[in-house]
Amino acid sequence: MDPRTDEKLVEAYRRGETDVFRILVERYHDDLHRFLTRLAGDRQVAEDAFQEAFLQIHLSLGSFDTTRRFRPWLFTIAANKARDLLRKKGRRQTLELSAPIGSAGGSGSNDGGSFIDLLEIEIPPPDAGLLSEEQDAMVQRALDQLSEPLREILLLAYFQRLSYAQVADELGIPLGTVKSRLHAAVASFAKRWREVSTERARPAK
Q1: Each residue of 150-163: pLDDT tens digit?
Q2: What's the pLDDT tens digit per position in 128-137?
Q3: What sign does the dihedral 156-41-70-149 (CA atoms) show?
Q4: Measuring CA to CA, which residue among 67, 92, 90 is closest to residue 144?
Q5: Rounded distance, CA 131 to CA 33, Å?
Q6: Which partner from 12, 54, 71, 186 sits 20 to 30 angstroms from 121, CA to CA?
Q7: Collapsed DSSP state (helix, strand, coil) of residue 95
Q8: Domain that residue 165 falls in
Q9: Does 108 reside within a domain?
C-alpha cells in the first residue's frame, strides 16, 4: 500500500504520476461501495454512482484544493451521484443535505464524541463481523424507509463510526445540524427497526 496521504497522491497525479489514480480508486473501493449500497438500497445504482463519482474526480482533480481533505469531497460527490441516479429512476424523494431535520438535540459537551452510544438498537455493532444475510436484509429494509439525509448520516456515524466533528466535515454541515439530524435518524431508524423485527417475528398465515 502506498503510504502517501490522499492529498499527496492528488499532487503526484498532477505532476504526471497517472498510476496513482488507480491507488485512490482501490483505496476507497470497499468503503465507498458499502456506503453507496446502503445509501441507495440498490447495488447497480451504487456501482454506477461509484463509477460516475470517480469519473468526475478524474475530471476535477486539477481544481481540487489539496489543503482540504480528499475523502469528504469524494463522498459528497458520490452521494450526489447516487441521489441523481435515484431521481432518474423515480425511486425516492430527496432532501438537501443542508436542510435541518428534527429539533436541536444532542447538546453534549463532547463535540468530537462518538454517536455510537446513542444507538440503542439490538443489532450487531459494525466490528462484530459480517451480518448474517437475513440480518443484513432487515437492516437494509429499515434504512430504505429513512429519508436520504437521515440514512446518509446514520451510515457515516454508525456503520463507519465517525465522530460528530468528522460527520460535519464529511457532509459540510454545521455541528449543531449533525447533532439534531443524528437524533432524528436514531429515532426514525429505531422505529423502522422495530417494525421490521415485528414483521419477521409474526407467524405466517
Answers
A1: 888 888 777 666 77
A2: 454 566 777 7
A3: negative
A4: 92
A5: 16
A6: 71
A7: coil
A8: 115-201
A9: no
